Amino acid sequence: MHTQFLFWLVIAYLLGSVSFAVLISHLRHLPDPRKLGSGNPGASNMLRLGNRSLALATLAGDLGKGALAVALARYADLSLLQQGWVGLAAVCGHILPIFHRLQGGKGVATAAGVMLMLCWPAALIAALAWGLTFYWQRIASLASLLASLTLSPALAWLAPALLLPVTLIVLLILLRHRLNIGRLLAGVENRFRP
Predict the structure, then answer these.
(1) Cβ distance 113 to 64 under 8 Å?
(2) Best label site of 13, 137, 154, 169, fewest CB within 10 Å?
(3) Stretch among 10-19, 35-44, 70-79, 141-150 having the lowest mean pLDDT
(4) Whole-prediction pTM
(5) How far apart are CA 164 and CA 159, in angstroms?
(6) Segment holding 120, helix H or strand E
(7) By C-alpha distance, which of 90, 112, 110 is closest to 10?
(8) SS3 letters for 27-48?
(9) What angle do CA 89, 91, 97 make, to 5 degrees?
């Protein structure tokens, strides 16, 4: 069982390492999104660069790879806690992708896919927090931060076994948003215009 668990951790990391923003941009002969806009290879930056359909495709891909990693772990009969660690591995792959010189995204969409499989009510709470915050302020980073911060309290209530791996996912997301947090505190973070 120990070897099987390690196998699925590696598979999850490799799945997470597929950057859909970079892949889609390459297939469509577009510039590397890591060199434009916010420099983040994620759905928000793809939208910022002006292509809604590619942003949706990026979101679906990043969310899907997180969900798939946990689904495979569940299919392999790993425990809920082990599935949580597999989800963390997928998020680590997105943030530090081996296929893209460790230049990854911020992990939010991949974490959303992970949470949909691990505990969909907690994912729903986080999605609601994201939607309300974005509607209120039109700042994707603020919405992502507040949505992430709802996860640990939600899991303490809904699925305490997942607290440690999911709290580490949240901490990684906060760390990846450190520059955004600085801009938010300075009042100069980018907003999406209606």
Answers:
(1) yes
(2) 137
(3) 35-44
(4) 0.92
(5) 11
(6) helix 120-137
(7) 90
(8) HCCCCCHHHCCCCCCCHHHHHH
(9) 90
Q: Is 6 helix (H, G, I), strand (E, B) or coil?
A: helix
- CB neighbour burial string for 38-70, b if at least 16 within 10 angstroms, e if fewer: bebbbbbbbbbbebeebbebbbebbbbbbbbbb
**Is residue 158 exposed (0-12), middle (13-18) or buried (19+ Cβ within 10 Å)?**
middle
Predicted confidence (pLDDT) per residue in 83-132, tens digit: 999 999 999 999 999 988 888 899 999 999 999 999 999 999 999 999 99
Q: What is the pLDDT of residue 47?
A: 78
Strand positions, DSSP E, 43-160: none
Cα 46 to Cα 8, 69, 88, 156, distances in angstroms: 30, 24, 24, 34
For 184, counting Cβ atoms within 10 Å of its Cβ (0-12 exposed, 13-18 middle, 19+ buried), the class is: middle
Residues 28-56 have pLDDT tens digits of 877 777 887 677 778 877 877 767 888 89
Cα 163 to Cα 34, 115, 153, 158, 189: the distances in Å are 32, 12, 9, 10, 30
Tokens describing residue 169: 């996912």
Answer yes or no: is pLDDT of 147 > 90.
yes
CB 176 within 8 A of CB 147: no
